[in-house]
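In the design runs reported in the main text, the only information available to the sequence generator was the tokenized backbone. The following block is the verbatim input for one such run; it is reproduced so that readers can re-run the procedure and compare outputs position by position.
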């Protein structure tokens, strides 16, 4: 037991170092003061019942977003002149974002070289917190169950239909990810604006949608913090928002795409990855196999 607490303390020390570096970045003027961040925090433990325990949830919702076309943007108004046309994205990907609860997710985690010991240490803290609760070792295929519900408007006044997506590990009964989703628009670009509640704070990610050219008739999609605009990861606290020295991208490939990575499940409907970088070095890749349930 003592060894577990030593490992937990070491993991917290790693997090503290990152936060100190982040505050230094804010003092240099790198911040997100004009971004509409989610105001919702946790106290101690998060867990699968965080939203209901905090009296935040309304009616169940089928998807992460009501209408994927909210991300459409004109090329003439886009800073990098790429634009975004939801009709060019594969219809199964659009359906996944609008009816997320109809899909089963299986994932496999890979911690990159140089971060494996830190990941193992941090896993003791995230398991107790039941948030960002990934295995501390690479490998091993796990399944996620999803529950999505509206967030009462009084709790989260951001634009866009705010909702909480809770993903749990059915074998262990623990929460893996709990996140509050909304959108905001600036200069003709609509961003995904996602908050992960943490004790007395949240980790907010602002992601810009981009098309990924495909060898099939329809494109894949990438949501990324990189590129022009508001994209980034931010630690939101009662004292303000601090931009973190991190970036991430989510990529979703259409079925049958030759360039897609290997899925951790047979016959997936879609394949996706979640990649993260710290100070420019990639430290995490999660591969997802996504399958639509056939019982409709």
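Verbatim output:
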């Amino acid at each position: 037991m003592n060894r577990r607490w030593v490992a937990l303390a070491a993991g917290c020390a790693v997090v503290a170092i990152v936060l100190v570096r982040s505050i230094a970045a804010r003092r240099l003027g790198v911040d997100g003061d004009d971004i509409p961040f989610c105001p919702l925090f946790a106290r101690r433990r998060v867990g699968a019942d965080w939203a209901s325990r905090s009296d935040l949830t309304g009616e169940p919702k089928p998807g992460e977003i009501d209408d994927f076309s909210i991300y459409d943007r004109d090329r003439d108004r886009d800073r990098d002149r790429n634009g975004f046309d939801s009709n060019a994205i594969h219809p199964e990907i659009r359906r996944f974002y609008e009816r997320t609860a109809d899909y089963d997710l299986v994932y496999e985690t890979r911690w990159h070289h140089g971060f494996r010991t830190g990941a193992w240490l941090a896993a003791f803290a995230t398991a107790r917190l039941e948030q960002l609760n990934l295995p501390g070792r690479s490998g091993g295929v796990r399944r996620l169950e999803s529950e999505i519900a509206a967030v009462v408007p009084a709790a989260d006044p951001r634009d866009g239909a705010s909702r909480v997506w809770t993903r749990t590990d059915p074998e262990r009964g623990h929460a893996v990810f709990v996140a509050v989703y909304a959108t905001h628009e600036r200069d003709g670009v609509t961003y995904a604006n996602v908050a992960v509640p943490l004790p007395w704070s949240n980790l907010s990610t602002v992601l810009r949608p981009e098309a990924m050219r495909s060898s099939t008739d329809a494109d894949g999609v990438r949501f990324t913090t990189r590129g022009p605009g508001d994209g980034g990861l931010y630690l939101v606290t009662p004292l303000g928002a601090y931009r973190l020295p991190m970036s991430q991208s989510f990529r979703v490939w259409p079925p049958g795409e030759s360039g897609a990575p290997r899925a951790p499940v047979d016959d997936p409907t879609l394949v996706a990855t979640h990649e993260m970088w710290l100070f420019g070095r990639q430290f995490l890749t999660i591969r997802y196999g996504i399958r639509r349930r056939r019982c409709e």
